[in-house]
Structures
1.
Amino acid sequence: MSDDGLLSSLRYLFADFLDEEDQTPPFLPDGLPEGAAPIVSDGIHLLMDYQGASYARLYVERLTRFVGKQGIDAATFGDIARLMANRMAYEDAIRIAQLKLAQYHDSGGAVRSTDIEKFRFDELVDALPAVAAEPVLMVLDKLGWAHRRVSIPFSTASKWGIRRLKVEAWLRRWRMFSIRYLQERAWVERWLHMINRCLDKQPQSVPAIVESATMVQGFGDAYRQGLAAWHAIIDGLAKPTFDDVLPLTDLAGAIEEARAAAMPDPRQAALKRTIAQIRARAQGAGANAAAG
Amino acid sequence: MDTSHLAEHAGTAGTLFASVFVVATLSMRTMIPLRVFALLLNFVLIGTAIPNHNYLVILVQTVALFLNSYRLHQMLQLVRDVKKSVNSDLSMEWLKPFMTERKCKAGEVLFYKDEKADSMSYIVSGRFRLVESGIELPVGAIVGELGMLSPSKVRTQTLECVEDGLILSVSYDQVEQLYVQNPAFGFYFLRLASARLFQNIGTLEQRLAQQTALAAAKSA
């Protein structure tokens, strides 16, 4: 075997460690609606920076499901493209380290600062590969520490801080094997599935379902509460409507009303009450309509 | 009489003999012969280690011997079961030893339509429903086996758990590994998948015939 062949084989074998993933961005899908190309292109570049080419390809594949789909106009397609890219670039400790490093490099090393972010232990461990994270989570659960909060500094103020950020950003190699990634993947697929079902059952409410992705943002408590509220709205209103269990004629209005009741409260008492009221109203209206 | 030199010669000859087996084992292209040669190698190394009282080697090789025997048994069992399965009812029970368990709760979605497919599943208990078609899948049903062979490798329907249950899953990667490791498995998997496709075509033809007959009866 020639030296080149041997080196390329070794490079391939250690591609993950050498940061040599295929860096060719995916092509824009054919048949994009007018005005969508720059949004999709931005999404691709965001995800190339976030994870790599294969992740950007997954984004394009997901988007392709809606290209030329009946009921999806250019504006809705643009919203799906933008919100999906933002959601796929979810904020974990690795992402925060990436952003902090980028800020440092973009300023040519002039910006030197320290941000202290609060995370729960389980949130930090979830970003590790499932094989490593599961035993750690089990131990943390046994100790009752899984929900304990910890402050993590992200600093470009010292050489040591920058080195640490680089190590944390490097962990993105294993992001796709993490528990958090599996959860995020399931979330994106559920959101897209709900858009699809809405297209079949209540096309006029599609923008509300698409827009509901803005409820899930950030990290820490804000992220967890947004996620819980989103699932509560989908499980309580959207899914039963699509399953023909709840006779809700204005799903978009109901989602808007429920979202207004979603407060930063871990128990989501106001939101649950509002959902129950909307359901009772819809069932009452349905019963009246059936009675004649 | 001093027999230590005999033990030493036996050890050297045994090591040479074992080296031949190492090369032979590593040169095997498929899994079953590889395991057979690995077993022979374990025997040779144990035999070589006994005269020298090398207990660590004896222990390691004994563990490896059991491991190789177990894996060989699994592979042979797989080939037998695949053959039996193809000749009978197209079930995929033979894949069970290679599958991982997953408990599902009511309301949980196992996969969504258009999602990239990466595994196939066997329903052990509970109730599962294909959301788009509304079809409920019975216990013993296999889901997603054709996705592995389809060019787009995407789910064609959403699968939701309606009542708590248990499924067994095997990733396409694992099936591909089995396919490559064992030519007999590969061949029978192809036959099985083709048979399922023909079965689907048969069902569609039956439905078409029924619809045509219905339309003819209406127009008459």
Note: Helices of chain B lie at 4-26, 31-49, 55-87, 172-181, 183-219.
2.
Amino acid sequence: MKFVDEFRDPELITRTAAEIRRLADPQRLYRLMEVCGGHTHAIYRFGLKDLLPENIELVHGPGCPVCVLPMGRIDDGLAIASDPNVIFTAFGDMMRVPGAHGSPLQHKARGVDIRIVYSPADALKMAQANPSRHVMFFAIGFETTAPSTALTLMRARALGLRNFSIFSNHVTIIPAMRAILDSPDMRIDAFIGPGHVSTVIGCRPYEWIAANEHKPVVVSGFEPLDILQSIVMILRQLNEGCAEVENQYRRVVPWEGNRAALKAIDEVFKLRSYFEWRGMGFISQSALAVRESYAEWDAEQIFPTSGLRVTDPKAAQCGEVLKGVLKPSQCKLFGKECTPEMPVGALMVSSEGACAACYTYERRRHYLVSAGA
Amino acid sequence: MDAAVKIRFRDPQIEMAHGAGGTASRRLIDHLFAPLLLGNGSDPLPDAATVDVSGASVAFTADSFVVKPLRFPGGSIGELAVNGTVNDLAVSGARAVALVVTYILEAGLPGDVLEKEVRAMSSAARVAGVAIVGGDTKVVENGKADGMYVTTAGIGSPIPGVEVSARSVRPGDKVLLSGYIADHGVTILLARGELDLDAEICSDTCSVLPFVEALARTAAPGLRWMRDPTRGGVATSLNELARDCRLAILLQENQIPVRDAVRGACELLGLDPLHIANEGQLLAVIAPEYADAALEALRATPGGLAACIIGEVLDQPAGTVISATPYGGTRIVDMLVGDPLPRIC
């Protein structure tokens, strides 16, 4: 498959892994955070940790939109869905995320009209096909998915469609990275920068991390070779004592980002003054709400919601895992009360969540080394 | 007496995942059905049971079919219903002899749609060499079923010399696969038309009996275990095997045949082809000394050109399926959890 196979080429991968081993100073511990959940998933799926020396530690970041969604938002969305006139639509990623009274999938099993869509445009089509029902799209995602939500609302307005709305949970990546850097227990040397988000926002928004915090950021693609190459680039910077923003994913990410997409976001959304992130608490200016000019399509304006904050189960240590303080397997609930099938914390839900990826691909890792040899 | 049997099934309600063939289905069988109905909770359950009928050994199985849409590229519910039961018998080492068919029809189902399916069943039965000898029909109200559901039950006669069970699997045995995986599941996903994705993919629905017979002819003494990896895919079938034989299975990921279009669709949707359903593939575990002959026999069978050895059985880590990436990494290949849900963001 083109654009995939080249980046999974065993010989190139072996050579790049050797370069990493050559560059890694054995006297030193390298802690690199992969910000994006897509990277976390790829690292586990392709067994990349097996290729890295032990003193390179990969810390899983907050870039999994499902994982950082607070429980209260799911409950609010599901409360709207309980109106029999409403069709609740969401990406498949959302379906197993637990709310206080069960996940969307469990509500669906009880007969609530909840449907999986593959894009907000599909939800819009559903609204056109069901004029007597109200179709609500439960929108999640970083700047990656926000443009398609924005374009869908612009289209809804152009069509004068009155039975369609979105419940925006869109978040932005930079404030989350700032929160991690500001956290007192933060011990990260560099960032493997998010690839998909950067296709929209470009590389400039990371420059302050290099300039002010003196941490390298390398925006990376998602194939094994992409990630390993990014690690090589980071190690070179760290060994030379410099900190810059570099773009490994140039085949997809333009340095300046995608202006048209950013314009669509700006047309439809405004920054919320603060928003709760699961496991990380409230982060200011970190999420997108629908602008007043689109209020007629804003589910938060149309439907009364409690806006109640639901605290996470105390024993779950999602916050520590999200900030890289704990490894998934060090959480007290990991693999016991909390599994991908019966998740307690959201990190166990999405296949991009650090805990789910770790559970699925690595929970019996100590055996694997001998078996793989 | 039943009240005395301790039941460990604690799921508060039935969800779609209980029918998806993964861990939830397993719980339903192991913690509720098996202890109450079969009187055992720990014995491996084959795809067909063997019963003694007046001294003769008979293989016996049943299967139900709920599929949307009823027709899809490469097949339809009628064909699936015949092949599914023929295959459950085949992988248990038996040749299907007779089937009975139950239809649950939704009021409003067009007569010609039903006729097409009955014709499809008739021709699939002819191809598979099995007689349909009876059945039953029920009609439910409009809106209470997706057009039609089909249940088939079948009996089969054991193929001489073939004895398969998870318990006979040994470290060093080879895992063979008859061809391309995930065609059926991806075809159905695309045929539902919700994805706006087009690809030239067909369901692989067919009888796997010719594969089984080829193995019986060439490798019967070394034939340990067989399965047709339907719901939950190759990953789920092999996890069940690993659990039942208390051994490990090491897959060579780059050996597993997946068509480009299927791989592309899976990459796009965040699905693992190893978790996707097949309806005409055979997975077999063969003693190493018979593996080459078995592979040659599979390849010589119509539809078996892409057959290959995809892995081997190890003694550790017991109960686990692992996959070796082509560049020296490894990962656990887990059972499917819940329904496969496309990942978007």
Note: The longest helix of chain B spans residues 111-128.
3.
Amino acid sequence: MDVDDELAELRRELERVRGILPERVDVDPEGVEQGLAKLVLTLVEFLRQLLERQAIRRMDGGTLTDDEIERVGLALMRLEGKVRELAQAFGIDPDDLNLSLGPIGKLL
Amino acid sequence: MTEPLAALPDEELTVLDLADRLLNRGVVLAGEATISVAGVDLIYLGLNVILTAVETIAQHERRTR
Amino acid sequence: MSRYLAHVVARTGGAPPPAGLRGLPLRWLDGGDLGIWATEWSAEPTLTREDAFAHHDLVGVLCDGAPCLPVRFGTWLADERAARRSIEAAHERFAAALDRVGDRQEVAVTLLWRDALSPEGRGHAVASSGTAFLERRRAAHAATDERRREAEALAARLGSLLAADQADVRHETCPSDEVALSMSLLARRGEAEALKARAATMVAGLSGVRGVVSGPWPPYSFSEELGATGGR
């Protein structure tokens, strides 16, 4: 599966995640929804960074055309913006999404 | 952005270290046990679901300074 | 309906119990030659920060009295039958761990980066084109990778200098943007303070990071992989 397909898949997952989480969110700092949102967004951001690293490797390796580089870069940039936007909507500091995933990180 | 950790006194960093251990380490009992910290039942699935609980305590620590 | 909040796994025949959390009864849940010390509640509460630290104090008292394995905070059991089944599921591992780890203490060494990562280093880059974005992110990943290599080198150095047996060391590099290294060292009782002092001296001599040495604590970090059959 090439990077475009992977990004499309990730974008779909992100939309699906928005669907699963409640419409009206109680942005209480101790809130359960926020805790779940943070876990989900941390996972999404982790995966986005994995894809980003892969894209960069292929860019450096010369296996992406200039046009592909531009398209993939834009998609990743927009995804990163979307994750930040969702985090802020839940009252989460986007910088807090860069936490180690512990056992999940090793699985991935 | 919250205050950098490196600016906190030793005692507070020690508390954060301890909170990390209390919430993320220790024996995990299989099957019969549920892990419930914030009033939500989270059956242990091999995921680091208590991730957020550590940050809640960390944020509490920083807010009460 | 009673519910039990587990504190430690221990051998049967332990010392007389102190009280449980919030003055509630502390019960021994029997699983044969091993069992679980747990606080008995009449209903399941929302656990607080104070409960977590009270659990820590109680685990400390229990570990001082006999070899014990700390149970993850927030672990609830319905009854003694559930405790027995949990123990039977991992009996050999618990027994082996009690022998190896139960009587020992954990010293924590945490290293924090003195210099903060730039916003770009943390992942946020706004660029005028997709290509520019990828190029800036490449530089950011390179910086993060360099930090991780530095952290791994610190971990290797500290581990080899502070422990004779590397099975007595657990560490995680770069668990977050601010933390370079989170390390746990297993010490015999009576040797923990000396280990702390050695660690503190070593850590004070490091440049680029600020170190904090804590403990001794019950061996939380050396108990974690036990018990879960389908888990890690």
Note: Residues 130-162 of chain C form the longest helix (33 residues).
